[in-house]
Amino acid sequence: MKVLVASSIAREAIDRMRKEGLVVDERPGISEEELEEIIENYDALIVRSSPKVTARVIERGRRLKIIGRAGVGVDNIDVNAATQKGIIVVNAPGGNTVSTAELAIGLILAAARKIPQADRSVKEGKWERKKFVGVELRGKTIGVIGLGRIGYEVAKRAKAFDMNVIAYDPYISESKAKELGVKLVSFDELIENADIITVHVPKTKETENLIGEREFERMKDGVIVINCARGGIINEDALIRAIKSGKVYAAGVDVYSTEPPDPNSELLKLENVVTTPHIGASTKEAQTNVGLIIAEDIINLFHG
Ligand code: NAD
Question: For 241-260, b where at least 16 C-beta lie within 10 A, e where not — what string?
């Protein structure tokens, strides 16, 4: 059985598959065209968010039985084309949950205490202690939108900061929230009462622009807003306006409507926006986890 690894994945995952007798070829950074040319030799394909696994690649993958996405989003894989050919597509939800939750907490702290701005200032040779007066998290209300895997871990960590946690998620049970001491509230209640709002929902038709002009107007003055989920769940133009008007104290943004964002985007020019380049899952541990999850799926398929 031959496995093509078309993105760089954790060494542990490659070793694990080889130990089970699979032949693993590593071609990280391979182009779509090259992938089309060589895919006919492989039984399994592993990718991350690139390269694209198009219908053409799938068509040419005559031996292909499984495509593994070492991560969560499968938007670079033509899942319909794969399903039509009976090829299994697997991903690794859960492997990067804690890493993403930790980044969300990091962005909350960075936004509340202006850590990146203070860092820049010191490195510019300045000593502006009065400029960097922040806000404490203790006693504040954090509103978690989407209490799934990541939202749950964020809520747990927020509790450790002595924050009051409220959440909106119409699809989870009251008992799951109770377990954590989190109060489930309506969407409007969350928007109106939270000092910090963090979104952890998938991007769907229902959640695109979930937070827009109307929601910003109803928020508390001085709110902190975090998006570590997907670009566009919080409308970027509305966020820019809400920051400029002073409604939003600070924002932490890891994901953008288009990635990479336009370097001239106003969002990137606002002093109190802390930005990161979609690095929620970018930790050694998360990469090992997602690699191993996909390796196990492939081993199980071939070795029963
Ligand atoms: P999950 O499926 O475990 O949780 C999502 C939760 O959102 C579920 O509990 C679901 O009930 C809830 N939900 C769905 N629609 C909703 C709605 N309209 N209103 C309120 N709640 C709703 O997913 P997860 O693993 O926690 O991931 C959450 C998000 O984080 C996803 O968008 C994912 O793509 C993103 N993510 C980002 C990074 C990153 O690098 N920044 C890394 C991993 C995941």
Answer: ebbeeebbbbbbbbbbbeee
